[in-house]
Structure formats: C-alpha cells, structure tokens
C-alpha cells in the first residue's frame, strides 16, 4: 500500500516513522521553510499545482490513501486533498493536533481581525507569532512589534516599528516569560495552532498578565474524517491493510 503523507509538522514526522518500513509512505512538504526537518522515508518537496496537479500525481504514483498532517492553518492544501480524494474515492484522513483552549483570549477569525483588536484595545507592544505570512495585516498598525517567525517575512509586509526574531521551537516557559518581560509586551497575537511545542508562550502570557489575541482555526472541509493523535492515524492506516 502506498500512502501520501502531507506533512511539515512534528506529527507528520512521527507518523512517517511509526509507519516505516511496513507501509510505503511518501511525505510531501510545501517547501516554504529552508532546511526543513525531514521525516524518514521518501520525501517530495513543492506544491502539486492545484487540484488538477494533485489528482494527476495521485494517479501517476498509484497512491492508495492520503493522510493530511499539515499545519492546522494550511487550509488550501487541506481543501484540495479533501476534494481530490472524494473525487477519486481514496481513503482520506486528517491528523489535526488538538487546539488550545482559548481561555480568556480575544478570539478572532483572521489576521485582519487580530490587527483590528490590537488597535481597538490600544495595545502598544505586541508579540506577533502568526508566521511570516501573517505580518501584512499589521503593517499599518501604530504599535511596536516583536515578530517571531521561522523564516523572514517580506520586508514590505512589516510594520514600521518592529524587531524581528528568527527561530524555531520548541520553546520553554522560563525563556518565554523572560522575553515578554524584557520587551514589556502587553499583548500576544497567535494562531490557535495547538501542540506542546509553542504552548509555553501562552503559559508565560498568563503568568505575566499579558493579553492574548488568538486567531481561530479554519474549519475542516465538510465530511472529512479526522483524528487527534499519531497513534490513531497509525491505527487508521493499519486498518486499511487488513
């Protein structure tokens, strides 16, 4: 059995390792992060060329099932995979790590709404952790931003007053708390990515009394089956082999 594993997350790498070598898994990475952490087994890097390109690739590679373990905000590839698998009748599963509980966070639906919330509440020193593609919405906001991303955003999307930190988790509570205090942060802006790797920023914000603005996850396509753990995804793939 040949499985396409849409990856780029720690869960995807763990699943590839759990299935190898019993299952022929091809991991696919978007290619947006330089020097990515690679899973075990064959890897393809780059987009498929939309729905038509993905449909053609799945047929040419004789793929029997698709597991989507991409980032919870990778809505486009998730929608494409759901559509193509439905059309081709391929077994399809989404491995989605559990979301964070928003608690007292200001929950918004988009980066634009997050920027509006910063303005509305008068926050002046913002820790922005929505990724390289999320900075454009804040470009014209009159505040100072500490921006953390894995890769540098386009300079044209950056707000006038900012400091850029390029790093990749996992992060730890003590370090996150020190960062908030050192930069006198009064608001943290984050996407509800879930997972333990970046949870410490939320815990540190709570400890420091820093407000949290959280961008809610996009919904999964209608009718898509999803699981929350690597083990559950492994069991699903194993059930297809019986």
Automatic annotation (TrEMBL):
The entry's keywords: Cobalamin biosynthesis, Oxidoreductase
BP terms from Gene Ontology: cobalamin biosynthetic process
Pfam name, any one: CbiJ
Metabolic or biological pathway: Cofactor biosynthesis; adenosylcobalamin biosynthesis
Superkingdom of this protein's organism: Bacteria
GO molecular function per UniProt: precorrin-6A reductase activity
Name of this protein: Cobalt-precorrin-6X reductase
Organism, scientific name: Mycolicibacterium goodii (Mycobacterium goodii)
Lineage of the species this protein comes from: Bacteria, Bacillati, Actinomycetota, Actinomycetes, Mycobacteriales
